[in-house]
Amino acid sequence: MGLILAPIAADKVATWMAFMEDLNGPKKAAFDDFNRRYNLTRHDAWLCETPGGVVVCAIHEGPGASDFIANAGKATQEFDKWFAAQLADIHGMDLTKGPPPGKMPELRLSWKA
User: What is the CATH number assigned to the segment(s) 2-97?
Assistant: First the structure.
């Protein structure tokens, strides 16, 4: 599973919301194909308002999750480039340069029934 925490400037929250509406609406078929091509079985994003600011928590699950960000940065398909451009605009995350800077989140506790 991959987990990304991505800050959003207050003036980009509406842009992110429109991005999510596109992925759930007119671009849903392309997003479904995108996830299948990257071998993901789950791709969720939560908007989290914290005292330190707004962040998105995104989870990627499936056999391709560990390489998803690196592979998406090398993409040549139109939708993939559009998706990466949205992340760059909203979060300042340039996938062509690899994963976001800093240490990736580390799972320290997991409980399942």
Answer: 3.30.70
